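Run log, item B.
One chain of 369 residues. Sequence copied directly from the ordering sheet:
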Amino acid sequence: MNTRMRRAAVAVIATSMAVSIAACGKAGDKSSDSSSSSSSSGGTNAKIGLLLPDSVTTRYEKFDKPYFEAKVKELCSGCTVEYNNANASAATQAQQVSSMITKGVKVIVISAQDSAAIKSSIQQAVDKGIKVVAYDRLAQGPVSAYVSFDNVQVGKLQGEALLTALGSKATTKSKVVMINGDDADPNAAQFKKGAHEALDGKVDIAYEQSGLWKDTVANQKVSAAITQLGAKNIAGVYAANDGMAGGIATALKGAGISGIPLTGQDAELAGIQRIVAGTQSSTVYKAFKPEAEAAATLAVDLAQGKSISSLATTTQTSGSGDKVPSQLLTPVSVTKANIKDTVIKDGLYTVAQICTADYAAACKTAGLS
């Protein structure tokens, strides 16, 4: 590495460390910035595969993919990213892994559509000498590294936000509906675990089902809950993500139910707008940029044969029993009170993007206009 390049790399590292340190303790900031890597510009001409699970969840195509690609290019100018989206099909994702093997990628970064079903595909990749990084969801099999958020904490934040929104109505007689994520996603089980830790013994979880991460399924499940429990008897709804919360909000409105807490997750624009409007009480912000950059940094270091021990500082055990070096970032609860200090401050959305004509009046009341 020549002197000019070495100075540039040091500058990047120093800046990233400073940002990370400054962010600690601030609700809207990311405490685990992944930029502090030993990777430098240039290096190998490796191909890195990025496999994301679906296009229904807006974050993957809009945020994760471009952030990941940009970070790879920053760390390794000669590296290229081969990208595919499974479109919610485990079979398609398995085929995509095979395609990545054929293309000769050095590393595959994968957010598994089905963490168990993808195990044999990951084994095939590893048998060919390819390193695999599990992204956002901990896939089964011989994975070299995992980057995500503390997902049990995500569930706890959701449950705690629901209790806070219930206020004095948070009693053991208050009936709460829980709509969890897809059982094929290991994150869903962790969100569920954390939410139960917050809610059990404090409210009556009177109805609990999986919404499969689909707004239409969540709508159907909540409609069934309303029929079973009665519209007047539901105190609040736990939704594991914002996509499902959208379907649930529609079902509640159709049943004439308003003013009850409804959780979410992912800080999707539509979820933030519902929070502003008062039809959703909270979401959980898992900052996409540091997560994508962490995955890119791990991928480049693995492609270049470098140690990842300074990045993956903890260990998680997958469903297949494999202990995987992991980097876990910190999630943040978002309510109407801290939208400015989280998603707006971090540049995820602008006030103009949130406060469209339909939300202008609500934004003014919330102090966002």
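Observations after the first pass:
- Confidence is low (pLDDT under 50) at residues 1-43.
- The longest helix spans residues 3-23.
Flagged for discussion on Thursday.
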